[in-house]
Amino acid sequence: MRCSVVRNVWLAVVLATAVWAGPFTNGSFETVGLGVDFGVYGIATLPFGDSASIPGWVVRGTNIDYILNPPSWVGAEGSLSLDLNGSGIGGIQQSFTTQDGGRYQVTFFMAGNPDRRPRTTTLRVTAGDSSALYSFSVLQGYSLSNMGWVANVFEFTAESTSTTLSFWSEDDSTCNDPVSPCAFGPALDNVSVNQIIPEPGTFALFGLGLVAAGFLRRLRR
Questions:
Q1: Contact predicate 80/101, CB 8 Å
Q2: For residue 195, how far is the Cα from the chain centroid?
Q3: What pTM did the predictor assign?
Q4: What HEC string does 208-220 produce?
Q5: CA–CA distance, 183 with 181 (Å, rounded to integer)
Q6: Cα(67)–Cα(73) distance, rounded to whole angstroms?
Q7: Which of 3, 41, 186, 191 pairs as cysteine with 27 (C-beta 3.0–4.6 A)?
Q8: Whole-angstrom Cα distance, residue 68 to residue 74?
């Protein structure tokens, strides 16, 4: 009985180390707003301030491209992903409820528009006062069907009961292109947010499990 209780407590510890931040939504961009037209190329350019086309997200910067496969590139998850450069440098953001002082982990998949290669594409992730840059090398072998998506991790500590998570393109090196200025940016897909449970709480939970195991052992006697 004691072994069973301890095992169950450890299982609870493992499952409790990361829990969903419930209000965060549409991380894979698969929920599409009404009236979005992807056209024959599978690309819908969304302007600054658009909060309807990708429910849960607001477009920032100049604009972004909402990408549908087919006929455009293959996303990391599902059929939809983003190019954070539309005809100019752009980004997205979402605000969601957080626990003040809580620690959070953001995972996301990154690649780069394969229509311009080789090059290095860069995006910035920001949540509250925390910020980090992530880069991706768009190699010659990459294509619409072989994007080379890479998973990345970003962590932050919430400073209030609401946090705004944003992804911004840092690609301004292509803006001198005479044909398609700024049109080749970082690709983004499959964003998720998890709260990290602090270690002291984990050990306290395990300690309670040991107490419960001892109590049950005494009952058996």
A1: no
A2: 13
A3: 0.80
A4: HHHHHHHHHHHHH
A5: 5
A6: 7
A7: 191
A8: 8
